[in-house]
């Protein structure tokens, strides 16, 4: 069953999806997600550094549900356009969240405007009220399965 589509969800091309990846730490996982955004043309590679900096400054607030992190940073010159990336991890990593660790699905969001950024973070977080959505993403074996779960377009 697909989650309800977000009308404003950015496209999710194959370049923005990496499945069953290996990361040694939460920083490495966020770096992988940032690289997906860069490959998809949504952000410069240094956007990953901004996402990491936000987590270092504010703690693991990006771990929004058990097993799920929604990495993002403020709109800035590193953002080239709206984009979403999905990285699933073969071995989960800890972000330091007291209840929702370890993480095996990392979403990364790059949004060009501050108003849209806040709306997209909230709407993406709401998608995961479906308690098995994170597990279905973690188990996905293709980009098409990921897009079907999220209700996203290629």
In short:
With 154 residues, the protein is an alpha/beta fold. It is 36% helix and 21% strand.
Structural features, described:
- This protein is an alpha/beta fold and 154 residues long.
- The protein has a single domain (14-149), classed as Mannitol-specific EII, Chain A, CATH 3.40.930.10.
- Helix content is 36%, strand content 21%.
- It is built from five helices and five strands, in the order βααββββααα.
- It has helices spanning 26-39, 47-58, 114-127, 133-139, 143-150; strands spanning 17-21, 63-65, 68-72, 83-93, 103-110.
- Strands 1-4-5-3-2 form a five-stranded mixed sheet, sandwiched between helices.
- β2 (63-65) and β3 form a beta hairpin.
- The longest helix has 14 residues, at 26-39.
- The radius of gyration is 14 Å and the shape is globular.
- The model is unreliable at 3-7 (pLDDT under 50).
Largest sheet, in brief, is:
5 strands, mixed
In the CATH hierarchy, what is the superfamily? Mannitol-specific EII, Chain A
Low-confidence regions: 3-7
Binned strand content: 15-25%
Number of individual domains? 1
Q: Helical segment tally?
A: 5
Q: End-to-end distance, in Å? A: 18 Å
Proportion of helical residues: 25-40%
Structural class: alpha/beta
Number of strands: 5
Helices and strands, in order, run as EHHEEEEHHH
Mean pLDDT: 88
**CATH architecture type:** 3-Layer(aba) Sandwich
Query: What coarse outline follows from CA principal-axis ratios?
Result: globular
Instruction: Quote the CATH topology.
Output: Mannitol-specific EII, Chain A
Query: Mind telling me the C-alpha Rg?
Result: 14 Å
Strand order of the largest sheet: 1-4-5-3-2
CATH class: Alpha Beta
């Amino acid at each position: 069953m697909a989650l309800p589509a977000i009308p404003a969800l950015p496209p999710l091309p194959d370049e923005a999806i990496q499945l069953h990846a290996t990361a040694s730490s939460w920083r490495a996982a966020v770096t992988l997600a940032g690289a997906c955004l860069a490959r998809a043309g949504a952000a410069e590679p240094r956007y990953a550094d901004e996402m990491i900096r936000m987590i270092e400054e504010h703690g693991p607030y990006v771990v929004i549900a058990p097993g799920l992190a929604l990495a993002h940073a403020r709109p800035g010159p590193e953002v080239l356009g709206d984009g979403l990336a999905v990285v699933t991890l073969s071995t989960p990593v800890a972000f330091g969240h007291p209840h929702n660790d370890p993480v095996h699905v990392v979403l990364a969001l790059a949004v060009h405007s501050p108003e849209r950024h806040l709306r997209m973070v909230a709407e993406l977080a709401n998608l995961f009220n479906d308690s098995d959505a994170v597990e279905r993403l973690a188990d996905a074996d293709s980009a098409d399965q990921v897009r079907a779960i999220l209700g996203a377009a290629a």
